[in-house]
Amino acid sequence: MNNPLISPGLGTFVWMLVSFLILVFILGKWGWPMLLKSLKAREEAIADALNAAEKAREEMAQLTSHNEDLLKEAKLERDELLRNARLTSEKIIEDARQKATEEADRIVEAARENINYEKLKAIHDLKNQIASLSIDIAEKLMKAELSDKQKADALIQHELENAHLN
User: Fold this and answer.
1) CA distance linking residue 76 with residue 83, whole number of Å
2) What is the rounded CA–CA span in Å between residue 133 and residue 8?
3) How many CA atoms lie within 13 A of 131 on its CB side?
4) DSSP per residue, 70-127
5) Which of 12, 123, 131, 150 could lock 8 by a disulfide, CB 3.0 to 4.6 Å apart?
6) Number of C-beta neighbours around residue 8 at 10 A
7) CB pairs under 8 A, 24+ apart, for 117-121?
8) Residues 8-38: tens digit of each pLDDT
9) pTM score, two decimals?
């Protein structure tokens, strides 16, 4: 049991005590303030990070609310654009329908005028053909009637008596 570590001598004990007190003095003078300063800085950094996280959470809540407002506004604008597009397309369709109706009416009127023109032309041609045939028939009859000299003189005399001169 003479182990110096288990039962140290008085000299060893005093030197160990002096060494311990010097160590405590050095740590108390320079070590602990730096350690406390580091702990305080870390504590402030953690507090700042917590405050920043709380601010970020609040900003996220505001941004979420703002995004929802923007989304509602965008939906309203989309609905307005769709309504305007629908109204515009209905107007374009109605204008096209009206123009098509007017064009159809104009075409029908032009067709009627063309039909009337062709009808009048056909009647005129028919009259000309009838007149031409009548003249041909009259000419043939006259040749047949006038081939005899006595008949020709009698016809001329008869026509002269019936003619009214102005």
Assistant:
1) 10
2) 168
3) 6
4) HHHHHHHHHHHHHHHHHHHHHHHHHHHHHHHHHHHHHHHHHHHHHHHHHHHHHHHHHH
5) 12
6) 13
7) none
8) 778 888 999 999 999 999 988 988 889 889 9
9) 0.40
